[in-house]
Structures are given as C-alpha cells and as structure tokens.
Design goal:
transmembrane, mainly alpha, ABC transporter permease, ABC-2_transporter-like
C-alpha cells in the first residue's frame, strides 16, 4: 500500500512537471490539439470512404463497425495521451546511454518513462472518439444499460493496458539487439490493418497472429462484442488470459533487459 501511494505521488509529480514544461512554450502545448484533431478527421474521412459502399464486415453492420472504429480510436487516443511519447523513446535512451539516469533514481525507471511525457495535445482525440462511439451506438440501435457501460469501460481499460504492454515489450527488445526498428514496423503494420478490420474477420493463421502474437485483433473487438452482447464466456476468458500473459512476459523481458543493459558511457 505504501509503495502504491509513493508511485501515485511520483506519477502526479511527473504530470505536473510535464504540464509546467509545456505551458512554458504555449505553441508546444496548444499546437498538438490542432494537429491531432486534423489527423483524426482525415482518418475518419478515409474510413467513411472505405465503408460507404459496404453493408457488412463479417457479421457486423454499419453501426457495429462505426462503434469499432470509435473504440479503437479511443484506445489509441488514451495511448497517445498517457504513455506513448514516453515509452517510444526507450530504444534511443538505451542506445545513447540516457537509461543510466533512470536506473540511478529511486523510482521505477519504467514508471518514470511511462508518465514523464504525457501529451495533452491528444485530448481532442478522446472527445472525438467519444462522439464516434455515441454515433455507432445510435446507428446500431444498441440499448445501453449501466451494466453494459461499466463492462465496456472495463474492457477498454484492459485493452488499453494490453496496448501499453505490447508497446513496452517491442521496445524492450533494444536491450538485446542493436535496433528494434523492424519490430516497430511490424507493430505499425499490424495496427494499421486492425484499425480497419475487426478481429471477427480473422481465421486460421491470421487469428493466431492477431489474437496471440500481436493481439491488436482483440483490442477493440472485445469491448464492442461486450457492448452488443456478442462476447462469449470463452472470448472474455481469452481476453483476460492474453492480458495476464503479456503482463508476465513484458515484466520478465523488461527485468532481463535491465540486467542485460550496459551503459553506453561505460
């Protein structure tokens, strides 16, 4: 309990420092609001062009697909706001020796890396994603209940954590190899595909990849399936198992990487 309180205080301090630093340069603070909003709107137009002439994707109609797009965008927006810009620099910090500064501090290096560069400029993506989700619910004729809302929020939170774990795991490979660039390229390709196609369309080899190895196929699929009451007990158990498995794997790889790490200055 004491450790948790200390970590929460550290996170609060990191966020305060980040916001103060951004407010010193107002353009750096407000600029991303405009840029990220424009990127989101362009992405939305692309999705509209793709799905305007398609009645169904697998067993899902237009309402379910809009909800899926909004859910994936929400998870991605949480990623961009909270931790992406912190952990994305892990390979560079390992390569140039900046990781030394994190290992010598009396704070978990991963905790500090995670929250030291929060990005309030991506907050509009959260709001716009919420609008898309609400439109998908209306378009799909979904009757919303408190139970469904709470369950949907739970699955979005679990999948956001899973998203984080996969990103950390991929970038932790830099502890062992000279560059994790190819793995990041693979990550981007998987994300691009799964942002356009829900997990329900994957079968066979592709399902193994996007449900187990790079589990982007379940990240927005499971929350939507819960909200439209299509999530089976087996699917729910699988989502929890994958999240727990990646938690253990990422923690193991990170700890081994820290032990394996040799300072670039040594």
């Amino acid at each position: 309990m004491n450790r948790m309180k200390r970590n929460l205080r550290v996170v609060r301090v990191l966020i305060d420092m980040r916001l103060q630093n951004l407010m010193m340069f107002r353009l750096s603070f407000f600029g991303p609001f405009f840029v990220d909003s424009c990127v989101f709107l362009i992405q939305l137009c692309v999705f509209q062009a793709v799905y305007s002439n398609v009645d169904r994707i697998g067993t899902w109609g237009k309402g379910q697909m809009i909800l899926y797009i909004g859910t994936f965008s929400m998870i991605n927006a949480l990623n961009m706001v909270l931790y992406f810009f912190g952990i994305n620099n892990i390979p560079d910090k390992i390569k140039n020796g900046d990781m030394d500064l994190y290992l010598t501090k009396p704070v978990s290096p991963l905790l500090r890396l995670t929250f030291e560069r929060i990005n309030p400029g991506s907050v509009p993506l959260l709001l716009l994603s919420g609008v898309i989700i609400a439109y998908g619910i209306k378009e799909g004729g979904i009757k919303v209940t408190p139970f469904l809302v709470l369950g949907y929020v739970f699955w979005v939170a679990v999948m956001t954590v899973l998203y984080y774990l996969v990103e950390v795991l991929i970038r932790s490979l830099s502890f062992f190899i000279l560059s994790s660039g190819n793995a990041v390229i693979l990550e981007e390709a998987g994300l691009t595909l799964c942002m356009q196609l829900p997990g329900i369309v994957f079968y066979g080899f592709y399902k193994v990849i996007f449900y187990m190895i790079l589990p982007y196929g379940i990240m927005a699929t499971l929350p939507v399936q819960f909200l439209i009451t299509e999530l089976t007990a087996g699917g729910a158990v699988w989502g929890i198992v994958v999240a727990v498995a990646f938690t253990l794997l990422t923690a193991f790889v990170w700890k081994q990487g820290i032990r394996h790490y040799n300072s670039a200055s040594s």
